[in-house]
């Protein structure tokens, strides 16, 4: 468990930072005296409003918005390079960007944003922060979903992308790599949260072409503030490779052993077949 971790003085990058959980993270991290937060998003209007608000509150050097389609690896690399060129370091990356669309419409776009972009960003973050590559170590947190653990037949592609994020994160966070990189790689599985991703009329915030986003049928959603606080707490205290559930407005719950044992049991069950 990380001891005495603080955001103070650190440089952070958040994907999908214009609204909802992403915007909440940007605000909270700045309030914890981070040196700088850059957030990436395609929603220009919402991003510029947030950037202006936070520059007025925290200072012009503390926050920066970069318009970026995270599914475009060239744009992603350019965003990373801009941050590193300006601040000569990067300490924390939170891969939060995601879209929710009807599977028969734009499912490739959902895979590109929800999963492929997480791979690109994670690998770029490791190349930038790893001690064995000249960095200073750091933290990567990838946002998955409770649907990665309990798939929904009506959200098959979304569930699959979030399960892929979880498996990828756990695979790349093996301790022998951590001992060289000193970059903790973590995952959180969020329960239903009251954000724009659950509302059809806000679909333009995530993808201009995603016209079939649909409203969650889940009767109870946790507050954005609860999800944000949970993610902040996980970054502060979690061991490398650990997985956490944040749901129901409750503190984060470490489910690492359950996830690992579940996968191991499946392997054992099929080993003799």
Report on the structure:
With 273 residues, the chain is of the alpha/beta class. Helix content is 43%, strand content 15%. The protein is built from 8 helices and 8 strands, in the order βαβαβαβαβααβαββα. The protein has helices spanning 20-31, 44-58, 73-87, 107-129, 156-172, 175-181, 224-237, 256-270, and strands spanning 11-15, 36-41, 63-67, 92-95, 138-145, 183-190, 243-246, 253-254. Strands 3-2-1-4-5-6-7-8 form an 8-stranded mixed sheet, sandwiched between helices. Helix 7 (224-237) links the parallel strand 6 and strand 7 (243-246). Helix 1 crosses helix 7 (224-237), helix 3 (73-87) runs parallel beside helix 4 and helix 4 packs parallel to helix 5. It is globular, with a radius of gyration of 18 Å. The N and C termini lie far apart (39 Å). Residues 198-217 have low confidence and may be disordered.
């Amino acid at each position: 468990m990380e001891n005495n971790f603080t955001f103070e003085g650190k440089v952070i990058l958040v994907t999908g930072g214009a609204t909802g959980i992403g915007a909440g993270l940007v605000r909270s991290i700045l309030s914890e005296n981070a040196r700088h937060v850059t957030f990436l998003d395609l929603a220009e209007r919402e991003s510029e409003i947030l950037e202006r608000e936070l520059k007025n509150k925290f200072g012009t050097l503390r926050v920066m918005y970069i318009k970026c389609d995270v599914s475009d690896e060239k744009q992603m690399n350019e965003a990373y390079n801009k941050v590193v060129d300006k601040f000569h370091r990067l300490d924390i990356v939170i891969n939060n960007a995601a879209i929710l669309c009807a599977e028969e419409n734009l499912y490739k776009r959902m895979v590109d944003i929800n999963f492929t972009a997480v791979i690109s960003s994670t690998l770029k973050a490791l190349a930038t922060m790893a001690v064995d590559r000249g960095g200073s170590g750091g933290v990567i947190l990838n946002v998955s979903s409770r649907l990665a653990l309990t798939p929904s037949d009506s959200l098959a592609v979304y569930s699959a992308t979030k399960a892929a994020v979880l498996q990828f994160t756990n695979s790349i966070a093996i301790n022998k790599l951590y001992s060289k990189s000193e970059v903790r790689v973590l995952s959180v599985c969020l329960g239903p949260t009251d954000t724009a991703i659950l509302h059809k009329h806000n679909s333009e915030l995530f993808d201009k072409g995603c016209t079939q986003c649909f409203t969650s049928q889940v009767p109870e959603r946790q507050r954005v503030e609860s999800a944000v606080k949970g993610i902040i707490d996980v970054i502060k205290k979690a061991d490398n490779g650990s997985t956490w559930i944040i749901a129901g407005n409750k503190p984060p719950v470490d489910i690492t052993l359950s996830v690992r044992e579940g996968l191991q049991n499946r392997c054992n069950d099929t080993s003799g077949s």
